[in-house]
Amino acid sequence: MRPTALLTRLGGGLVVLWLVSLLTFALLQLVPGDPAELVAGDSATPARVAEIRTQLGLDRPLVTQYLSWLGGILHGDLGRSVFTGDPVADAILRAAPATLSITFVALLIAVVVGVPAGVVAGLRRGSWLDRAVSLLATVGIAMPGFWVAMLLVLVLALALNLLPATGYSPLGEGVGEWFSHIAIPATALGLATAAELARHARGCVADVLERPYIRTALARGAGSAWLVRHHVLRNAAIPVVTVLGLQAGRLLGGAIVIEMVCGVDGLGTLAINAILQRDFPILQGYVLLSAAIVVVVNLLVDGTYSWLNPKVRAS
Amino acid sequence: MRSPLSRLLAVVATVVLAVTAAACSSSGPESGSGEKARLTIGAAAVPSSLDPRKSAPYEAQWIGMLYDTLVQRTPDGGFAPALAESWTLSPDARTLELTLRPGVTFQDGAPFDAAAVKANLDAARAGGTNFSGQLTNIASVEATDARHVTIALTDSGAPMLGVLAGEAGMIISPASLGEDLSRRSAGAGPYTLDRFEGQRLALTAWPGYWNAGALGVGGVDIDVFIDDSARLRALRSGQLDTAFIIPSQVREVGDSGLELLRPKTAESFWGVLVNTGRKEFGNPLVRQAMMLALDRPAIARAVFGEGGCTPSAQPFDANDWAHSPELDSLPAAQYDPARARQLLAQAGLAGGFDFELQVGTAQNYTQIGQILQAQWGEIGIRVNLRPMENVQFVTARRQGDFDGTVSVYLNARPDQSAFVKNFYLPGGIFNPGKYDLPGTAELLSTSSSGADPASRAPAMHQLMVNALNDGPPIMPICTAPRLAASQRGVRDLDMTLETKFTDVAVDPK
């Protein structure tokens, strides 16, 4: 990508983030009930609720609240939790490793399982292998991740006692412990994405094989292994990378449910708690972070296009 | 040159293989450190704050471990000495004198004395805490000497003991009174705070505690699992020593060889609250008819399973002194739809009427709502169910913005009299329609004058029977104990709201 194109993309990303911040803030104002109601407790008097509202600065005009929040972000300050007074950035940094581990490993599983399966199925169209991959992919997409997670916990953790049933162990406390904790949630989360990737990879490979340049190459006497490496995979990769980018956002969302089922203390749990407690600063920080991740992934996907396809680079 | 995709695949495959190999060589879960084992508890919600002045109703359990209370509520509903060694209520019930335990220090090293108690109570009375409303009947607090505190009250003072067994009795070291204690501790309780991050709260036994000899565990870890099934799975897999469960999990607990913990006294009750200022609810005949149309055993069994919630027309548990043994057998407490229809006709409402019933979104609420819809439908009352998200639901209830609402309430916190004040007296937080049955305030005052339950009971029973016969605005359905389950190796575990986790011990695994 040329520098000007890169700058345009980055600028666009920043505008998207700003719009997300505005939308998140505005939407949260529409949510009935505010944090003061919860901080005050079940049996508080209206006067106590009003007192807490003032303490939290919720009685200020909305524009002032938004501008002070936005100003904070520009200085790297995402605000503080309504309940604990902890900086939002700390809470997010503490919860992020678990979610990012699960999402990353899920993506890895999806790529490692999904792409080769799809490619092989695409190369051997109509064979029993192709049918088996297609069938498994359909089943994989149809099974909800949380259900797969519960099933895996019942079998691998409770019945066979091979893996811990819940929780997360930081990477710093040993790779083995870390992996044993995220194996179940990552597999459950990655399965549907693997299936999705397999179907796309199969379709793309099959599509490329139909192209005239493949026929020409075959006519020139190109070996099939060489052909797959140089023409089929590279051309089929672009739509697959697109799907991968889209799935990254989906995985981040799916992690919320999986974290609840597997009792993982990650970003999803943080977000759910923030919603339950009306901890708006935490929620705003979470949404902004998620948006930033999606924007970055999209930039990476765009970058990958031009790396994969010289035509994109030239345009 | 190999294609980029295959290179990427090769890298990915290598990483996965390496990680898998490492996982296979991993050891089991680490065992507890220190001499005594730690207790790991699965809780259902993250405490919003560790500051007793800001805590929500079910969080006192964790906060009390850090602060201890002046008075300890026992699992059977009585009171035992804690930071206060003894107390006396004057014959006119207007003066409560506390004798403090000598030689106690706060975790910050400051001495615990009468001046500290006075500073705490005075600060709370000035406002700014979630329990300031419980202290409005205090006229003055005097530190007579280092070990004696005299509390002068403007009305009958028996309920003050329960108040001092709750958040209001969690004494904060005076040096920290002006500070935000959301994430740190400044008490004199049995445990100190190690860390409170995200879903985990870690506490360590404090050797300086006045009753340190009773501490059977080296520390307590509280892990929060919002999802009920995830929590039980963690317990079944051995990651937790004990966890709170919901009634529908009782069978699974039994099948997996865990121990079921059922408190002696249920601390909450499910009920329907109607707004006597709206619809036809100001008419006692209508409320009586609605009570008679309730088939409580059917609701309790269908929603909570066998033994999950005990059907009762009164809010108090059968083991509570405030529970009237004869109330549940009175005609007004029976299921009698024919009589209910008669009463409605008598009220000029033979054709029934409509009203909106607010319920929470949790399954329990909506199930109860649907059964009520059917049972009241039998006598011609048409119920429109309105499921509401939690904060919205609580706010509507607080502001009196409802016709009827289904809820679960604590029944005897901080004292049994709080139920009467909240629901039956004008100005009560759950009495938006200003329901006022003559004689209630007088009976409550009589019941609040005696220090011992036996002397408090008769007036309270009379009060509850009067309200029942009048058609109460709060219609109790069943009393619900908070259930928990534990591993077999956990001994003397008490999971009631006021436990300080002092006697519990965990067998080495």
Write the layout of secondary structure elements.
The complex is a heterodimer of chains A (315) and B (509).
Chain A (H helix, E strand, L loop, with lengths): L2 H28 L4 H6 L5 H10 L6 H13 L13 H36 L4 H15 L2 H15 L15 H35 L2 H8 L4 H39 L4 H11 L2 H29 L1 H5 L1
Helix pairs in contact in A: 1-12, 5-6, 5-8, 5-10, 5-11, 5-12, 6-8, 7-8, 7-10, 8-10, 10-11, 10-12, 11-12
Chain B lengths: L3 H21 L13 E6 L16 H8 L3 E3 L5 E3 L2 E6 L5 E6 L13 H12 L12 E8 L2 E6 L5 H6 L26 E7 L2 E6 L13 E6 L3 H9 L5 E3 L5 H6 L3 E3 L6 E7 L9 H9 L3 H9 L5 E2 L25 H10 L7 E7 L2 H15 L4 E7 L1 H9 L5 E7 L5 H8 L16 H8 L5 H18 L3 E7 L3 E3 L3 E2 L13 E2 L3
Parallel strand pairs in B: 1-10, 1-11, 15-16, 15-17
Antiparallel strand pairs in B: 2-3, 4-5, 5-7, 6-7, 8-9, 9-10, 11-19, 12-19, 13-17, 13-18, 14-18, 20-21
Helix pairs in contact in B: 7-9, 8-10, 13-14
Would you write up a description of this structure?
The complex is a heterodimer of chains A (315) and B (509). With 315 residues, chain A is an all-alpha fold. Chain A has helices at 3-30, 35-40, 46-55, 62-74, 88-123, 128-142, 145-159, 175-209, 212-219, 224-262, 267-277, 280-308, 310-314. Chain A has 2 domains: 3-74, no CATH class; 97-314, MetI-like (MetI-like fold, Orthogonal Bundle), CATH 1.10.3720.10. In chain A, 79% of the residues lie in helices and 0% in strands. The longest helix of chain A has 39 residues, at 224-262. The termini of chain A are close together. The mean pLDDT of chain A is 87. Among the domains of chain B are: 4-24 and 67-176, Dipeptide-binding Protein, Domain 1 (Dipeptide-binding Protein, domain 1, Alpha-Beta Complex), CATH 3.90.76.10; 268-479, Dipeptide-binding Protein, domain 3, CATH 3.10.105.10. Helix content of chain B is 29%, strand content 21%. Chain B is built from 14 helices and 21 strands. The radius of gyration of chain B is 26 Å and the shape is globular. The relative contact order of chain B is 0.15. Residues 1-6 and 8-34 of chain B have low confidence and may be disordered. Classes of the chains: A mainly alpha (315), B alpha+beta (509). The interface between A and B is large, with 65 and 64 residues.
